Amino acid sequence: MMERVSTKTIVDTIDTAKEYAKKLEELVKSLDEAELQVDCSASMTLGDIDTTFSEIISKLTDSLEKRRTSLKAEVLSIKREGLAPLKACREIVCQKLEETQDYILEGKGLLGTAENNPDANHCISFCEQASDLGNLPAVPKLEEVPRISFELRVGEVLPELLKVVVSAGRVSRMGPVQLTQLEEKPGALLVHWEEVDLERTVDVLSFRLQCAHGDLSESGLATAVEGGGDVEEVEGPSKGKGTPTRLSTNSRFLEGNFHDMYRGPETEHLVRDLKPGEQYTFRVCCRVEGDTEWSAWSLPRVAVTNQNHFCWEQKNPNYLVTNENKIATKITSDPSILFSSSAQFGSGHSIEFTILEAGVGCSDEGLGLVNNRFDGDSLLQVGALFLNTLGCVFVDGAEKTTRLPPLIKGSKVAFSCERIREDRIRVNIDSNNKTVTYDWKVEGAACESEHFRIFFGLCFGETGWKVLVE
Description:
Blueprint: H1 2-114, H2 120-128, H3 154-166, E1 177-185, E2 188-195, E3 204-213, H4 218-226, E4 234-235, E5 246-247, H5 251-257, E6 259-264, E7 268-271, E8 280-288, E9 301-303, E10 319-322, E11 327-330, E12 336-339, E13 350-357, E14 366-370, E15 384-388, E16 392-395, E17 398-403, E18 412-421, E19 424-431, E20 434-441, E21 455-460, E22 466-469
Antiparallel strand pairs: 1-2, 2-7, 3-6, 3-8, 4-5, 8-9, 10-11, 11-22, 12-21, 13-18, 13-22, 14-15, 14-21, 15-16, 16-17, 18-19, 19-20
């Protein structure tokens, strides 16, 4: 008996130790990821610093060289303009001087011949020319010609430049805003974020959400490198035995893959038009009051939606369904209901209809939510929450008093809902910035589960209507 107890105790102890070892291995994996994040972000940041400062040095040097060349060109231009009239004046003076020297030589010649055989007429002519000796050409004074100089107040300019340089750039330990949750939606992800820098004393003016296709997190890049991906490599932390992991430090490569999804004051955004089953990387930053630059980015988060995007059924011959079954165009004059391809709309979802083209519109034409598929050619009946083209809302066929704007080309109508109990949901309808809310009793088992799904649909009798669902 004692041996059995001891054996069982040992087996239980070993099982407990295995579970403990498994948890320790998970902790080691978490430490690997943490080291990977620190090393990779440090390498990327060092690369960013070198690239940025090299660019600044290059552009600053280029600007200084251009300025020096410009100033020297200005000096040469002033020199040309200043010397041109002096050159012309010099030519006149030199000509006068040459003529005067010839005149002197002529006079000396007359003196030599006057004693032997003087020519009275020649002497008279020579003396008459003396009247021209008093007319001197005009020569600019020194005050009237350029005296070129250069001035640069180095004592003022250099301190200002140095002040900018010594405070340029900022290293952040962590971004001041972080992603908190990414919820799967049909063909979309609802991304949430919040501020984590609680010591910040200024208000955030705007957030900026970006998305990239694929896994661009540190671990994702490491996997890409190990799989032979075309990524710039640097040394990273070693994962136990073997060679160190190598990661991309080319932040410009990363920047080129991210695209803005949202800018504004909200702390959540629904990113639509995502392909189910494919990975997307998200990041967020913020801009605070009094700052023109965006903050450091948050940690990247990778998420996938496995829910297909909202789409129309394809088997109704009265409608042409295109653009991945998201656009429905009425092509006949037969009244008909077009349902969604399946029961897709549920609690926490937001669906938006955009009227791309509009026809005349009647009271029994419009769009809405449907408990279950039913026969007929209009949604104006029990089992539907219906918004007609005139802006009237009907719940199970009964008209409500509040009206929304009529459906015209360019109109956007959004439905969102939440389950408030087993047989009832709360539906919000927003149309052109006007919102109404209704509690709708859904018959049957449609909303017994928290993950219930119902249909959406539209109904038109005439052509001219074209509706996009997202």
